[in-house]
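ugh ok fine here u go
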Amino acid sequence: MLAGDLTGESNFIMFVILNNSIQEEIMKKQLLLVAALAFGFVAQAQVLQFVYNGQGLASGSTLTATHTDPGTFYDIHTYIIHNLSSSANIKVRKTHLYEPGGITTQFCTNQLCYLSSVYVTPNATTVPQGDTLDLKAQYKPESATPGTSAIRYSAWDMSNPSDSIYFVIVYNGVTGIQPVTPVNLTLSAPAPNPASSVASMQFEVGHKIASSQLVIFNMLGEKVKEITMTEEKGTLRIDVSTMQQGIYFCSLTVDGKAVATRKLVVTR
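structure:
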């Protein structure tokens, strides 16, 4: 084979290698573009999020509760936040996935509570940018052994009804008689609210004082303040002068579990 032929063949091989490299690079960029678009689509779809006990609650989560005190409501308090640059118009739906009968369920959005016969909010609630929608789920057994029930709560923004979020509450009814030491655990809403310097909250923890704290979280779920209870009941004065302006969640925790959560707004 002549030297010229070798040179030509070498050039051809180099061209093939270079061409393959270019094609691989183009393919990589296309795959990255597709992945970026897919990620952007997913991120954009996550318009709403639940907040429970100061922490983000992923869509599809299940909460469990045990309540067998007949004739009284058991409340689970959550909030809905959104990442829109403008207001969101949010609707809520209640669905009985399973219930053996003999229970009453209802829910409230902000200060509006609906009858047990209402399963979807008749009108959307407008939630401004940076604000939240309060969602309180209520459950009342008619007997001391109500059995197990599963109730789903869904929420969506009217601008994109197909992009909904939900969580399920499983209420476990306990059969038989169990010894229970009654403890009145209460936490009032903060006042004033919004607050700029000091906010006050009424509380009662009874003999659970040794294991009770008030924990304050920001909108990112980060703990910004923790106050240990020193009395069985009284008034907590919370210094908010050093806290940044925004929305916070104040959770009363007893034995490591949050038993009540209230929203606090700090203004400057």
